Amino acid sequence: MPGEPRGVSQRGPSARRTSTDATPAGGDAGGQTDRPGRGRRAETEIQQVRARRTSRGRVAASLRRFSGREACRQAAQQRRRPPRTRDREHETENTRPRGERTDPRPATRTTAEAEGGGGIAPARSGTSAGASASDMSGAPTTADALVREDVEIEIEIRTEVGPPFGPIELYPTSTVLNYGQSLFEGLKAFRREDGTIVMFRPDMNARRMASGARRFLLPAVDLETFVAAAEEVVRANAHWVPPHGKGALYLRPLLMGTGADLGVKASHTATFCVYACPVGNYFKSGLTAIRLQAVRGFSRAAVGGAGSVKAGGNYAPAFQVQAAVRQRNFDEVLCLDAATGTMVEEAGASNFFAVVEDGTLVTPSLGPGTILPGVTRASIIELAREECGCEVAERHLTLDELKSAKEAFCCGTGASVTPVGSISVAHDDGTEDEDAATVFGDGVSPGALTQRLHRILSGIQTGEDAELSQKYQHWIHIVEPK
After folding, report:
1. Is residue 242 located within the same domain as residue 143?
2. pTM of the model as a whole
3. Which one from 188, 265, 284, 310 is the annotated catalytic residue?
4. Boundaries of domain holding 294
5. Which ranges are annotated Basic and acidic residues under compositional bias (predicted)?
6. 244 and 302 fall within a common domain
């Protein structure tokens, strides 16, 4: 069979020869009993030959069974099957009536399943019911429960109760593995002083994922489903939300092509899931400026590409440059435009702002489609105009213009507002361009506007600024308890 590895039988079990004419070397079938025990040894050898042939036949059959074409055919048949009836033969731990569960773990309500927003699995046994928020520093400690929803594009959306946090089964032919057909989002849930848990602007994350889904030919998860799924994850992992002022619960929604669709095309099946991770405060003792380095010859995205999409594949190409920059004792890479290599676009995982010489707050424009439309970016633009009275411009920002800038900062979900102390420019070989270096203020302390915007945004998210929290209450989504 074409495509099968050499040394593997090309005959499956149905075509396997079963003749037993194998004869030991140095004798024939009629002479196998000349000496005592010789017949038994010969029969043993024949059985071993049969076993090897049978084993090779099974391997070949397995290879055929899991070939791309066969997997696609099986997936199509699976999609055409009617929903299984709820009978005793097909019951699972997640479908068995609550009173008949054999799993000793407590069941978690699956309200989102009825509402079309995903489901929650029981919490893992042995998982701590809480954590010390003072110890949370952003390490990848995942929370308990996971929402998962499978989407068959041409048929329907069906919501299933997802497992606790753990591995997700995927076909080797799935488009997320082979072609990077995947999107992700990032948002946070905060615990306020009165114990209320809130999410910050989840509607914007939902709309951005829907926009990326159109670009990547994935099914758009509607706003209600997205928010309901995020809510369910927060509720199921409420014990992981740090105390007021000690951090947040970071949520990571994923949307990816998961069907058995071998071929360079969009998947016929997609999976949407949400998981959570508790994180501590990014800055432990006040705002501390970071050092950025731009690398000539490296750009994150080009005009006409997918730079404005929050796709997994947009981040891996920067890993090598990020590692090199950090090895040179810089905190993050600053991405330049692909056409000229002279204009700032954004940092590795955050948007960039600078207060230029005339006092205008400038951030690179979204127009060329090479910059991610950040949720925090949009919030900062509005707060700078409405609360700080700043003139804000979305336009090109060159490295030369930064030399006379008063201050700069990055912003994103992870670190909120992060002051930038200096920017270095390096060539491909790592040598620095001394003429292009820029230092803001003393290179360590945050600028006045940076501090103010950080305080305003944090006050709205955590509820510490009651007046602004009321004014911008449409940015806050309260997670009602069960």
Report:
1. yes
2. 0.72
3. 310
4. 290-477
5. 35-44, 84-106
6. no
